[in-house]
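Q: I'm writing up a methods section and want to include an example of the input and output format. Could you take the sequence below and give the corresponding predicted structure tokens, formatted cleanly so I can copy it straight into the document?
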Amino acid sequence: MVESMRYALLAPGKRLRPALALEASRTCGGTWEEAAPAALAVEMIHAYSLVHDDLPAMDDDDLRRGRPTCHRAFDEATAILCGDALQPLAFQVLATGMLVDVVPEACRVLAQAAGAESLVGGQLDDLAAERGWVPDLSNQTPEQQVAWMERIHRRKTGRLFLASLDLGCLAAGGNPQCRRNLKEYGESFGLAFQIADDLLDAEGSESSMGKRVGKDAERGKITFPTVIGKEFSRQRADALAEQATAAISGYGDAADSLRALAKWIVSRQT
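A: Here is the clean output for your methods example:
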């Protein structure tokens, strides 16, 4: 069990969510050390979600972060239990590592981001669209298709980005205004990330991405490039990255890394 958990959690990757937690703390006047439990907790939730998403019953992927997925490296039962174990461990880390007075709010934030109304619900929406459990999206207008995609991605991907930022802010004792600004940053950041991810699935290589590419097209999945085109998708992602940086314009040098991350996510090749 421990071996599979280490395999999932310590696999090579961008560590984007932990980075957001650490840099949100710094933006709000805190330190990386104060936000370390938050950073670890969000990565545990992310790692568990990848393990379960890759299972044959879900996305049925063989490659993740440049190596075999957890259920391929071990077996399906071990992968399921690995994810089951990582999820509560994330809350244990928050409860034992963060300041006592922010633990209840921190646990609420992470639970809300990981649950049925967010990450899990977004994955269900994604599966529903892919497997025809909802009305045929191809018959809808481009505007309706974009609205559907944004709904999925804000839940499935965006909410954990928001939680990462919020937890970092809480670790630093951030005030309500700081939390609001980081939420605005995170909403634009998350959608920009997903649009860029759609583009990379269409144009990237397996060697650089560390996972199978082109699977959206294979499954006939609706993505931003297929609905609004690659060029307009790039423009939309760039505009969202600019909106994200504008949201934290009042935080000076402390927010430099968050600004750099917003620019990087739309120009990355991995």
